[in-house]
């Protein structure tokens, strides 16, 4: 039975409904060809509008997790029947990812500065910036249980921000920082490769092991580049999964 949830997440309602339906598919052990709850049932369960439910179902269809058969309903696909933990194709914040892996991460800020885009040609190209444009560069570590899990280097065009971030904004979600300025990241294009940490970031054994480097250009809903991120995931503690079809 699909259980109602209180929507207190920072995600959009449609995204929360999508996640709840996907959780229901997994928890109920639904197989390819099984019917999912109707629009009316979802509206009643969550107390939300029909447009929100339809948007959630559209997202599930786009991800290939359900299929609509007109006149009959919506049904689980073979892809949805596969439970894939932390798919690398999921767009989510580092904090969300680590929490889903069972970590309670803390954020340590290494540096926060405003520089010219010319100082980081790769970021400037990804963000479509002129060399003389200003960017905000935030360098952080995500740690849990005394272990460093992720080293992050985020680059944001200053033109998108109301001012230089400070205080809690430096340890909080970069996605929410951009959202508060009206530029919430909605999708991204990423490249993944094994790499070592940049020199001087850490000392000790962690510095000598390979990390999984995700270089990511994040876009807003209208396709504007709003963030260029380099996230080094510690390979011995963090992993991703994927399906192929």
Set out the fold topology.
Elements: H1 13-27, H2 39-46, H3 50-62, E1 66-69, E2 73-76, H4 78-81, H5 94-100, E3 106-116, H6 121-127, E4 134-144, E5 147-157, H7 168-171, H8 174-180, E6 185-195, E7 211-220, E8 225-234
Q: Short summary of the structure?
A:
By secondary structure, the chain is an alpha+beta fold.
CATH homologous superfamily (4th level) name of the largest domain: Chorismate lyase-like
Order of helices and strands: HHHEEHHEHEEHHEEE
Derived from helix and strand composition plus strand pairing, the structural class reads alpha+beta
**In the residues, how many domains can be counted?**
2
Task: Look at the structure and give the mean pLDDT.
Answer: 87
User: Which sheet architecture does the biggest sheet show?
Assistant: 6 strands, antiparallel
CATH class of the largest domain: Alpha Beta
According to DSSP, the number of beta strands is 8
Order of strands across the widest beta sheet?
3-4-5-8-7-6
Structural description of this entry:
The protein has helices at 13-27, 39-46, 50-62, 78-81, 94-100, 121-127, 168-171, 174-180, and strands spanning 66-69, 73-76, 106-116, 134-144, 147-157, 185-195, 211-220, 225-234. Helix content is 27%, strand content 29%. A hairpin with a 3-residue loop joins strand 1 and strand 2. It has 245 residues and is of the alpha+beta class. The protein is built from 8 helices and 8 strands, in the order αααββααβαββααβββ. The chain has 2 domains: 13-81, Winged helix-like DNA-binding domain superfamily/Winged helix DNA-binding domain (Arc Repressor Mutant, subunit A); 94-234, Chorismate lyase-like (Chorismate lyase). The strands form 2 sheets. Strands 3-4-5-8-7-6 form a 6-stranded antiparallel beta sheet. The protein has a two-stranded antiparallel ribbon with strand order 1-2.
